[in-house]
Amino acid sequence: MALSPWMEGEFIRITHESPTTRRFWVRIPSVERIDYQPGQFFTFDLPIHEKKNKRWRSYSIASTPNDTNVLEFVIVQLEGGAGTRYLFEDVQEGSSLILRGPLGNFLLPKDLSKEICFICTGTGVAPFRSMLHYLHQQREQPPAIHLIFGSRTMDNVLYRAELEQLAAEWDRFHYHPTLSREKSPEWTGRKGYVHNIYEELYADRRDAYFYLCGWDVMLNEARERLGNMGYGKGQVIYESYG
Asked: Which of 152, 197, 192, 155 is nearest to 175 (CA)?
């Protein structure tokens, strides 16, 4: 299948989501609406190197298909990362961008008769935010949806208020943030890592889909633990951030 052509976009809005992450809204003026599926990503061609393959950075779409030509991305600043240094230091509202997409096969299952458990850390929440809002709009929905979100501290819990509100409004959706390094008494939620939560939730080994998104360390451990629980290929779907 031929890749999508490169297009010109414009950063129309930038906000701080946490001390190390920003939300970027990109409009693509050449189209009236962008056709994509929740879970897909776009590749940015950033002016940071002479070689093409050293300029390309891929980011999951955090927004849900909405019949517009605007996309949202949530991006973490990586220490020493040339791409995020450019995005955080040089890009402003009104800056132009070359990008290509949608790309990727990290998609919701066609069969929605089983529970879905989303497991992520950091900006790995982006495709799940897209999927959650999409599912919330559909007539056919899974019997239960869990989002297990791991972070170090409270100020790095992305989309916290929004996801808490969604869980309050939608009885099928259950939100499980957990913090590994938070010491403040203000945090009364779960502490530790994501793995303990899904092992508790699915201790009965009931049938479900597990979607994983984040860094390889978390993905590899989750895949191993889920495999030990009896969940195999076809039930565990993952997207690596390297």
From this structure: 197
Which candidate, 128, 11, 110, 22, places its Cα nearest to that of 70? 11
Residue ranges making up the domain that contains 120? 115-240
Short-list 82, 60, 44, 218, CA closest to 130: 60
The structure's pTM equals: 0.95
For 182-197, the pLDDT digits (tens) are 989 999 999 999 999 9
Q: How far is CA 176 from the centre of its chain?
A: 15
Task: Give percent helix, percent strand, percent coil of the chain, each to the nearest 5.
Answer: 25, 35, 40
Domain end marker among 52, 74, 103: 103
Q: So what's the pLDDT on residue 25? A: 98
Contact (CB, 8 A) for 22 and 86: no
Cβ contacts of residue 131 below 8 Å, gap of 6+?
38, 39, 108, 118, 211
Q: Kindly report the length of the chain.
A: 242
The domain that contains 78 carries what CATH number?
2.40.30.10
Does 123 fall in a domain? yes
Q: Which two tokens stand for residue 113?
A: 């008769």
Phi, psi of 156 (to 5 degrees): -110, 15
The tens digit of pLDDT for each residue in 40-99 reads 999 999 999 999 889 999 999 999 999 999 999 999 999 889 999 999 999 999 999 999
